[in-house]
Design goal:
This protein has 227 residues and is α/β, with parallel strands linked by helices. The chain is 30% helix and 14% strand. The chain has a single domain (4-226), classed as 3-Layer(aba) Sandwich (Rossmann fold), CATH 3.40.50.880. Strands 2-1-3-4-8-7 form a six-stranded mixed beta sheet, with helices on both faces. Strands 5-6 form a two-stranded parallel sheet.
Length: 227
């Protein structure tokens, strides 16, 4: 039977300032989707509220806008997947072997406190599945607790978009919190690559995390190797 992957995307379209647009960092979805597709995996997309997933404008510009992202935007059927995402209540976690949280700064607002996403993540992990994220996607793991009440990330090695990368991207004044610090506060062992904006993936058992948009493909390949 084909393995099944659940991708998580955002519903948020702007920073606290409505004049500052954000959304899904498209290549973080498309790179992973492409890797999983080549394996013949079945894939579905969920968001905290269901429905439309907006795109981060900066992810649609060179050099972030590569052939997988362009191909997705040119494909009406693929774009429809982002216009009509499932809501958590539409998802049976038992159907999936892995969950993959995509990024874009938007997820900092709607991922951390989605009880629906937390429930799905907990069930997949406790059933022996893989929990993965890339870039800001790790914000979706901040508050997820296991059945024993412990935080999923506590005592585990993780990576995700670094504060240094926020500063270099000149959005450190726009983001609602320092995700790297919030991870550390929860007892996670945060790691990052030597150089910002280069691929870096951390694997801790069945928890797979990638640091930045450049890490999406490598993160997906790690998930494949574990599956």
């Amino acid at each position: 039977m084909a393995k099944r992957i659940l991708h998580v995307v955002t519903n948020v379209s702007h920073y606290d300032d409505p004049a500052e647009p954000t959304g899904l960092w498209l290549s973080e979805l498309t790179h992973a989707y492409h890797v999983f597709e080549k394996q013949g995996y079945e894939q579905r997309i969920v968001s905290p509220k269901g429905g439309l997933c907006p795109l981060e404008p900066r992810s649609l510009k060179f050099p972030n806008y590569d052939k997988t992202a362009k191909a997705w935007r040119a494909d009406d059927a693929r774009m429809a997947l982002l216009e009509n995402t499932a809501a958590p209540e539409d998802i049976d976690a038992a159907d999936f072997d892995a969950i993959y949280f995509t990024g874009g700064h938007a997820v900092m607002w709607d991922f951390p406190d989605s009880e629906g996403l937390q429930s799905i993540t907990r069930e997949i992990f406790e059933r022996g599945g893989i929990v993965s994220s890339v870039c800001h996607g790790y914000c979706g793991l901040l508050n997820t607790k296991l059945s024993d009440g412990s935080l999923l990330v506590a005592g585990r090695k993780v990576t995700g978009f670094a504060w240094k990368e926020e500063e270099l991207a000149k959005v450190d004044k726009l983001v609602p919190y320092n995700a790297e610090e919030e991870m550390k506060k929860r007892g996670a062992h945060y790691e990052k690559g030597l150089l910002p904006f280069t691929p870096h993936v951390v694997v801790d058992g069945r928890l797979v995390t990638g640091q930045n948009p450049q890490s999406a493909k490598a993160t997906a390949k790690k998930v494949v190797s574990l599956l």
